[in-house]
Amino acid sequence: MTDEQKDILIAKMIDNPASLTDAELEMIMRDDELREILEASAAIGSASAVQPDYDMTEEWRRFRPRIRRKPSLTRRLMRVAAVFLGIVVGANILVKLIDHTLAPEPQHIVAKAEQPIEKDDSPANDPEQPEQSEIAEPVAPPTKANKPGTTHIAKAEVPVDEAMELDIDEYLRIQQAQVDNEIAMLNSSVIANELEPLRQMYELMGEDDEVIEIVINNITEP
Amino acid sequence: MRYSTTEFETIYVKCFPAAMRLAVSLLHEEDEARDVVQEVFVKLWESDFRIENHAAFIIRAVRNACLNRINLLDNREKIRRRLTLEPPPEDYDPDQRHEEVTQAIKSLLTLREQQVVEQIYTHGMSYKEASKKLEVSEATINKNIVTALKKLRNHFKSPSPIYVKNRVVRH
Q: Using H for helix, E for strand and C for coil, what is the string for B127-141?
């Protein structure tokens, strides 16, 4: 390459690098003198780069939003666990609430229990004092100090709540059993679907049914 | 052991200017340089360990980050931005380099060559703009630039000068 050619390339490098062809770029990279001139140009460029005095208050204000403390792994796991727990507890409460609302009305055992008890000991059976019994019945408080007749009424009121509780618990057990049953059915259908290609493959391979059964049993049995 | 915000602000204020000088010196673009420097500081902030010598760590990290960015550019872009083709030495000091080049320009180039270099490099003018400004032909601008670059190339090719109290002393 002549000096004149090099000067032309230098002029292009400095004034209009976009006009350099790939071949010219290649020539520059292969020529030691041109590379050194490029380095000299880079050195002037570095020395000429504007280096202002930085306002550090302003620089820190610009940088500050870029730093945010990342939560530690433990904290993140605890957050996930807390969210999961919240969802489970919330869902449980919701399910109970819905079940409780939709549950059938419990039978009024109290009403049935009151009738015979009062008939046994109530002075109302006494034909001589009919007015007293009518007054005493609603007034009698459910305390231990009451007469035997009224004490029975107080005891009979408690099982109403218990009966409701028992009804809800039983209902929940039935619901749970139904859900378990559905899950089991789904599981079996999923396993059957997943194993179907395997079964087909073994059939294609010409294996006996017995062999296929053994293989599938090996996979499905725990 | 992580830094508190106050601690980190102190480190940032102390180390940022030197890191920026280095990044600007290597990348020649202030916004990109700031981006690189801030990335390095973010990495330091997010690290789980404490570093004894922050300044050394940051300078080293900024240098590597800048060189990585330069390596991603093709040669045409490097030439356009007048970036170095060779990685600078490990102990590259932008302030010292700046002084070295400035001294060389003043001592080696003629007044006209200095004027041309100033218009082209400091003010980023094209040959056409510089020729108008200096009232000379574009050919003269080119001749001056080529001569100046060749002089500087020969100067930097020779053994590196060392600086003692702002005076150039040759081996």
A: HHHHHHHHCCCHHHH
Scanning every residue of chain B, which has its alpha carbon at the shortest distance from the alpha carbon of A48?
Answer: B122
Residue by residue, pLDDT tens for chain A (222 residues) are 788 888 888 888 899 888 889 999 899 989 988 998 888 898 888 888 777 788 999 999 999 988 876 666 677 788 888 888 899 898 888 888 888 887 766 555 554 444 555 444 544 445 555 444 444 444 444 444 444 444 444 444 555 566 666 688 888 889 899 999 999 888 888 877 777 777 766 565 566 677 777 877 777 665
- Rounded Cα distance between A55 and A65, Å, is 17
Kindly provide the b/e burial profile for residues A174-194, where b requires at least 16 CB atoms within 10 angstroms of the residue's own CB: eeeeeeeeeeeeeeeeeeeee
B7 and chain A: CB distance < 8 Å anywhere?
no
The residue range of the domain holding A36 is: 3-48
Clarify whether residues A16 and A123 are in a common domain: no
Give the mutation candidate from B1, B38, B145 for the A interface (greatest A CB count, under 10 A): B145
ipTM of the assembly?
0.80
A118 and A43 within one domain: no
- Please state the domain count of chain A: 2
Say how many domains are in chain B: 2
Tokens (6 digits) for B25: 């010196």
Structure tokens given for B40 = 């390095």
Spatial separation of the C-alpha atoms in residues A160 and A136, rounded to whole Å:
23
Task: Evaluate whether residue B128 is within a structural domain.
Answer: yes
